């Protein structure tokens, strides 16, 4: 439906483009006029429905009717608007457009939540609202709007999960959180799963001051308690104690270390002039046809001058070998998927950008709120289906047989 151009011309008569916005702008006038017209329509429908209802037998109930109006100041996208809210004699009218105790249009709240999710601080949001809409939103108002999200966060953190996930990427980011008067650097553990249909989902967030076997056990037991019975492949970034925790909670899960992180760790020991040679030698290991060929390639590197110059590299691969070998059993399509934790690193980078502006958070709950909103705001990017999923799915279904869940 398009708006009549003559009507627009009449509305703009005697006004400039600068008169559109602000407290006295035409948009505020239009919002008020349209909202009051909608409220009037709601009242007419309400009274019509009540008239259609028969009075209880034996009662001579007078028909409900209008009873003037009351004024309410409502916060909208264009500023504050004073609305005349129609009243009825029986006091049964509760408008849908703006409920009895509601002081803000839902779209206004969504805009504040969107700004918060993009990492803007309360002060920045306050300044933005004052600059754009011409009125001051108190910090308590902004906090109240964002705090209302905590019920959603709690429900999301405790929601039931799928019985089986083909692949789960697990990693942690560090966030500064105040506790007992001091700011500590906590790990926020993120689990990003690939569903049977190839789409992605974040299973939850877990906060811990120190990563370790007990913490990982707690995370994995939480997944079990929420319905997860099996994980086919868990891709991790050398998290201490994690393989043992996975084995205890999900004995059949194959743990795969992130090859890219292992390479980066190796490169950190080599001088700049030798990095290309080291990368070429190690590539022969992780691109080998099978585990036997990879073992031979690693042995060859161990006997080279490069390994002698950088003695820390080969042992780092040996220590992680049990979590490297599974990768070599997979066909190319699956290897490309589990080669790196880049999928979760890309997600974590969005979270880091949002939390960076905060400095620190007053509590775990405050950090969880922002991270949850960030995940929602960027969901169209990280939830999209995995490339070549059809080929990967076919390979996983063959390799894991009856354990692979059918979408």
From TrEMBL:
One of its GO terms (biological process) is DNA transposition. It comes from the Bacteria. Keywords: DNA recombination, DNA-binding, Transposable element, Transposition. Pfam families: Transposase_mut (PF00872). PROSITE patterns: TRANSPOSASE_MUTATOR. InterPro entries: Transposase_mutator. One of its GO terms (molecular function) is DNA binding. Residues 45-77 are annotated as: Disordered. Residues 45-54 have a biased composition (Basic and acidic residues). Required for the transposition of the insertion element. PANTHER family: MUTATOR FAMILY TRANSPOSASE, TRANSPOSASE FOR INSERTION SEQUENCE ELEMENT IS1081. Belongs to the transposase mutator family. NCBIfam families: transpos_IS256 (NF033543). This is Mutator family transposase.
């Amino acid at each position: 439906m398009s708006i009549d151009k003559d009507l627009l011309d009449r509305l703009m008569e005697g006004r400039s483009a600068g008169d559109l916005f602000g407290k006295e702008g035409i948009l505020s006038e239009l919002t008020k006029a349209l909202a009051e017209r909608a409220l009037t329509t709601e009242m007419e429908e309400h009274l019509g429905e009540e008239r259609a209802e028969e009075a209880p037998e034996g009662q001579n109930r007078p028909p409900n009717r209008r009873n003037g109006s009351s004024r309410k100041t409502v916060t909208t996208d264009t500023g504050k608007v004073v609305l005349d809210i129609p009243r009825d004699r029986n006091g049964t009218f509760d408008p849908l457009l703006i409920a009895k105790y509601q002081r803000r249009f839902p779209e206004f709240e969504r805009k504040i939540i969107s700004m918060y999710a993009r990492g803007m601080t309360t002060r920045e949001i306050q300044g933005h609202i004052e600059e754009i809409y011409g009125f001051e939103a108190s910090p308590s108002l902004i906090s109240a709007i964002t705090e209302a999200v905590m019920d959603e966060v709690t429900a999301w953190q405790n929601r039931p999960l799928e019985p089986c996930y083909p692949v789960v990427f697990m990693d942690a980011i560090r966030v500064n959180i105040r506790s007992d008067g001091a700011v500590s650097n906590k790990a926020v553990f993120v689990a990003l799963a690939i569903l049977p249909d190839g789409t992605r989902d974040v299973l939850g967030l877990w906060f811990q001051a120190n990563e370790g076997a007990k913490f990982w056990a707690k995370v994995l037991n939480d997944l079990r308690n929420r319905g997860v019975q099996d994980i086919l492949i868990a891709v991790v970034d050398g998290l201490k104690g994690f393989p043992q925790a996975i084995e205890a909670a999900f004995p059949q899960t194959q743990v795969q270390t992130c090859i890219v992180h292992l390479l980066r760790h190796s490169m950190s020991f080599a001088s700049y002039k030798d990095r290309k040679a080291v990368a070429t030698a190690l590539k022969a290991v992780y691109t080998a046809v099978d585990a036997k060929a990879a073992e031979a390639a690693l042995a060859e590197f161990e006997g080279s001058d490069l390994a002698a110059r950088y003695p820390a590299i080969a042992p780092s691969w040996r220590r992680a070998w049990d979590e490297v070998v599974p990768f070599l059993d997979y066909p190319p399509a699956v290897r490309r998927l589990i080669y790196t934790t880049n999928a979760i690193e890309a997600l974590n980078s969005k979270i880091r950008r949002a939390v960076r502006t905060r400095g620190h958070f007053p509590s775990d709950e405050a950090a969880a709120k922002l991270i949850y909103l960030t995940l929602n705001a960027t969901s169209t990017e990280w939830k999209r289906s995995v490339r070549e999923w059809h080929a990967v799915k076919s390979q996983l279904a063959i390799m894991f047989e009856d354990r692979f869940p059918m979408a």
